[in-house]
């Protein structure tokens, strides 16, 4: 047994050193160390944490106990064959056999140790270290699919010297040939297509300049459009549009009463005039006449373009006329046509305004639409001959132009405008009767329904039931025509009225009164 295996001897009796704490001779006494307090070990803790039974120290060998390190099971045959020591009679792998033959002396070549293997420095552990040539790289395998190489840009092709000049010249030649072939094919195709349609087409001839002689529509429009304005009204959140004609350099504009009536009768109504060049100006009401559907407004502008007045009395059916205005809000719109009829009595629908007019209208087929009202109807000289006022529609929501437009003759409108500018109001002649249109099969006329007391008709002796057939020189074919025949006269005029009473003709003189 060696020293590690010697059992450790433990004893609770410890010998105190005799010389460490002896009093030195002739010196002060020294204090001895306090004895160690070793409490008793708890039996439970000793059972859990104490040494196993029979073991007296940490390095003491086992006494009478089996060696636990040798209790492991022996390895399996496979592990012993793979990792165990070789048998003593097995051939060595570290040295070649004699003369390159097998160790068994059979004369067969050893498959592992070839001739000269003992002189191979890679197998000789005592050989010196030396650098040899690099190992030869294996040739690349080209049997698989080849990867796409990097693409060249145009700059590299032309200036990078990466393409042979002859190849570039060949590409250019091919491009030229392809282009020439395409051009030839296109020309032959075009020629064949032309031959299928018209081999010898005739093309109209044009002149270098466009003629706009005086009196043409273009000439008239160029001179007259600047004198026609657009009118916008606004009453609260609602608004409307119409047209007007500048009739005086002081800024007076003639229009229809039904265009400005909503703003004139409502509190806070606004009227604004837009000129041909886009200039806007607020307008003030000068006067209006609901019985003729005419009104005059004034704008404070400098040097406006003023329209030239013509004469509606000189018109004949078939004369060319042009309508200018702002239909549907489209300012400066020009349409042309002819005079379709003259002295056409038309009762106007006020469309929610106080307009109650019967006009002796000029009928035209020039396209007139909502918004043309108040605009100009001009003749072939460019002079204003009428104020566009009304259209005839099919009803049922069909409000567009159907070639039946009506304008107030300028001879009537000019006199009304002058009176409105002078006094702000107009007085008309009255006959003092209510009538309806009748037709007995032979004669058309206006039958008197009632006679107003103290009126002109009552003073002349006209009674209910009389049928008026003529006023002055104008035949009367209905009640509307009677109204316009009377209103074209002046208050105080004496006019001969022909009528039929009980089947007999009768003529009376009537002194017209004022409304």
UniProtKB/TrEMBL annotation:
Cited Pfam families: PDZ_2, Trypsin_2
Enzyme Commission code(s) on record: 3.4.21.-
Basic and acidic residues bias: start-end ranges: 1-17, 31-41, 117-126
Transmembrane segments: 168-190
Region: Disordered, residue numbers: 1-148
GO annotation terms (biological process): proteolysis
Domain PDZ per the UniProt entry, residue ranges: 430-503
SUPFAM superfamilies linked: PDZ domain-like, Trypsin-like serine proteases
Listed InterPro entries: Chloro_Bact_Ser_Proteases (IPR051201), PDZ (IPR001478), PDZ_sf (IPR036034), Peptidase_S1_PA (IPR009003), Peptidase_S1_PA_chymotrypsin (IPR043504), Peptidase_S1C (IPR001940)
Keyword list, A-Z: Hydrolase, Membrane, Protease, Transmembrane, Transmembrane helix
GO molecular function, one term: peptidase activity
Biased composition (Low complexity): 71-82
Annotated family: Belongs to the peptidase S1C family.
This protein's name: S1C family serine protease
């Amino acid at each position: 047994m060696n020293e590690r295996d010697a059992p450790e001897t433990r004893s609770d009796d410890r010998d105190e050193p005799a010389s460490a704490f002896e009093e030195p001779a002739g010196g002060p006494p020294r204090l001895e160390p306090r004895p160690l307090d070793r409490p008793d070990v708890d039996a439970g803790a000793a059972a859990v944490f104490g040494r196993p039974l029979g073991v007296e120290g940490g390095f003491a060998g086992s006494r009478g106990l089996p060696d636990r390190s040798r209790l492991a099971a022996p390895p399996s045959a496979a592990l012993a064959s793979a990792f165990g020591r070789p048998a003593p009679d097995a051939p060595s792998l570290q040295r070649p056999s004699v003369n390159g033959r097998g160790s068994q002396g059979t004369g067969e070549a050893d498959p592992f140790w070839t001739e000269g293997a003992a002189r191979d420095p890679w197998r000789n552990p005592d050989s010196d270290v030396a650098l040899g040539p690099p190992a030869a790289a294996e040739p690349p395998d080209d049997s698989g699919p080849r990867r796409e190489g990097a693409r060249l840009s145009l700059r590299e092709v032309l200036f990078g010297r990466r393409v042979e000049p002859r190849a570039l010249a060949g590409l250019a030649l091919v491009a030229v040939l392809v282009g020439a072939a395409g051009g030839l094919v296109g020309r032959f195709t075009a020629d064949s297509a032309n031959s299928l349609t018209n081999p010898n087409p005739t093309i109209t001839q044009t002149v270098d300049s466009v003629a706009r002689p005086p009196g043409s529509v273009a000439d008239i429009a160029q001179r007259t459009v600047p004198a026609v304005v657009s009118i916008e009204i606004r009453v609260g959140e609602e608004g409307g549009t119409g047209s007007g004609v500048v009739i005086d350099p002081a800024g007076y504009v003639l229009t229809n009463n039904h265009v400005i009536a909503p703003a004139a009768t409502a509190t806070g109504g606004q009227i604004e005039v837009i000129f041909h060049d886009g200039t806007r100006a607020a307008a003030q009401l000068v006067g209006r006449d609901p019985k003729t559907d005419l009104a005059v407004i004034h704008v404070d502008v400098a040097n406006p373009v003023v329209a030239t007045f013509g004469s509606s009395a000189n018109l004949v059916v078939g004369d060319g006329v042009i309508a200018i205005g702002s239909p549907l809000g489209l300012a400066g719109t020009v349409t042309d046509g002819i005079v379709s009829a003259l002295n056409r009595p038309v009762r106007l629908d006020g469309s929610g305004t106080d307009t109650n007019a019967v006009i002796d209208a000029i009928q035209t087929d020039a396209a007139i639409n909502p918004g043309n009202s108040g605009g100009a109807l001009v003749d072939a000289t460019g002079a204003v001959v009428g104020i566009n006022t009304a259209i005839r529609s099919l009803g049922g929501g069909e409000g567009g132009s159907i070639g039946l437009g009506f304008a107030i003759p300028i001879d009537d409108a000019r006199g009304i405008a002058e009176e409105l500018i002078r006094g702000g109001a107009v007085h008309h002649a009255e006959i003092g009767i209510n009538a309806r249109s009748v037709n007995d099969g032979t004669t058309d006329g206006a039958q008197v329904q009632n006679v107003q007391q103290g009126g002109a008709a009552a003073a002349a002796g006209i009674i209910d039931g009389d049928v008026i057939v003529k006023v002055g020189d104008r035949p009367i074919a209905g009640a509307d025509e009677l109204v316009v025949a009377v209103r074209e006269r002046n208050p105080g005029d004496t006019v001969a009225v022909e009528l039929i009473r009980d089947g007999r003709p009768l003529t009376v003189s009537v002194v017209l009164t004022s409304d």
